[in-house]
Amino acid sequence: MLFPRSTVSVSCFSLARLAASALSATAFAGVTAFAGVTAVAGATALLGTPVRAQSAAPAAAAAKTAKPASLETMNDLALAAAVNVCELAVEQKVPVQNAVISNAKAITYVVTATHGGQIAGAGKLEASQIINGTIVQIVGRVKQGCYPKITTADKKFVDDVIAQFSAQSKQQQK
After folding, report:
1. What is each CA distance from 52 to 55, 68, 111, 129, 160, in whole angstroms?
2. pLDDT number for residue 61
3. Lowest pLDDT segment from 21-35, 96-110, 152-166
4. Is the pLDDT of residue 49 over 90?
């Protein structure tokens, strides 16, 4: 089992707290990964814009009538994505970066199409903000789950994302 029950909690949490716990650092008071993250190490350049692949009409309609995605929903989506990433990385030898980006795009599509790009506590977000926040959340879960079983290159990606998020969070607190 890649994620022992005792390792991963499915309670509501902010992304910043997840990253902090993955780093064993102090919690970032009032900072959420979705609201504050503007870029994760060129991830936006790698990602493109998944929203372009979809029609603007459904997204606009969803934004007007949609209820924001709860943190619990985001938590559940990120946990499912992290399990998928670990399965692909450990069993299929897919690079963690590729699997994380693919899962982040999928979550961004769901949040944009179903919730109009809105996340509770963060308001309406751009696709790039959702992607970057989701990357941080998935990577934090990978760190808690299958990190010992992934390759050295994959560990470097995980560590780099967490380090960049931590540095950016510290910068925003100033």
Report:
1. 7, 21, 14, 15, 28
2. 59
3. 21-35
4. no
Instruction: For the full predicted model, state whether its pTM sits above 0.90.
Output: no
Tell me the per-residue pLDDT of 135-154, one tens digit each, with 9 for 90 and over.
999 999 999 999 999 999 99
Q: What is the 3-state secondary structure (H, E, C) of the chain?
A: CCCCCCCCCCCCCCHHHHHHHHHCCCCCCCCCHHHHCCCCCCHHHHHCCHHHHCCHHHHHHHHHHCCCECHHHHHHHHHHHHHHHHHHHHHCCCCHHHHHHHHHHHHHHHHHHHHCCEECCCEECCHHHHHHHHHHHHHHHHHHCCHHHCCHHHHHHHHHHHHHHHHHHHHHHC
- Is the pLDDT at 51 greater than 70, yes or no? no
Q: How far apart are CA 147 and CA 137, in angstroms?
A: 14
For residues 117 and 59, the answer to whether their CB atoms sit within 8 Å is yes
66, HSE (Cβ side, Cα atoms, 13 Å): 22
For the chain, the straight-line distance linking the first and the last C-alpha, in angstroms and rounded, comes to 41
